[in-house]
From TrEMBL:
Keywords: DNA-binding, Transcription, Transcription regulation. GO terms for biological process: regulation of DNA-templated transcription; response to amino acid. This is Lrp/AsnC family transcriptional regulator. SUPFAM superfamilies: Dimeric alpha+beta barrel, Winged helix' DNA-binding domain. The keyword Lyase does not apply. Residues 36-97 form the HTH asnC-type domain.
Length: 194
């Protein structure tokens, strides 16, 4: 869970003149303060749109030369701002006809139980996302299945898993929006404002 359970330390109060982002995790507090200038943000935005862009073209779009652009990309990778580069494949063309979500309730919220559930679903290739959530359940999963028989098998496996007390599935009919990454705002403009 992000944010609500842990308050930021007073020593890391962001200055309004700088782009400072802090991420706080619930179980172990990890404070990552990353300062990104307008060029870094442009690089991240461009790579989110096209991970196969050449460094020369990326540098051109960012308004800098290629060597410092490559150094910035490597720095953003080392900081964990850029976590990887992935191909966007069509699930249906690969035989995954169904995408569905599963809202999972557990009978305990002890750390060992939560970690055990996460470890279990991490082994299932059909589980594409696993989010610990607040309100209405403990986890939200996004899964893919070959057909309704396979979907039912996965639902049964979830229902029968240790410590699972409730499973509610929601099948996707159509996906009208599926963006990668996050909005990358200029440092002088708060998120959500135009």
């Amino acid at each position: 869970m992000l944010g609500a359970d842990v308050a930021p330390p007073a020593a890391h109060t962001p200055s309004p003149a700088r782009a400072v982002h802090a991420v706080f995790f619930r179980y172990k507090v990890h404070t990552i303060v990353t300062e990104l200038d307008a060029i870094d943000r442009r690089i991240v935005a461009e790579l989110q749109e096209d991970g196969r862009i050449t460094n020369v073209e990326l540098a051109r779009r960012a308004g800098i030369s290629a060597p410092p652009c490559l150094r910035r990309v490597r720095r953003l990778e080392e900081l964990g701002v850029i976590r990887g580069y992935h191909g966007d494949s069509d699930p249906q063309l690969l035989g995954w006809a169904i995408t569905f979500f599963a809202l999972i309730g557990l009978d305990s919220q002890k750390d060992a139980v939560l970690a055990g559930f996460e470890a279990m679903v991490a082994e299932w290739p059909e589980v594409r996302e696993c989010h610990m959530i607040r309100g209405g359940g403990d986890f939200l999963l996004r899964l893919v299945a070959r057909d309704t028989v396979h979907e039912n098998q996965l639902t049964r496996r979830l229902t029968e898993a240790v410590h699972v007390s409730r499973v509610q599935t929601l099948q996707t009919i159509r996906t009208s929006r599926n963006l990668v990454g996050v909005p990358v705002e200029p440092p002088d403009r708060p998120a959500g404002r135009t």
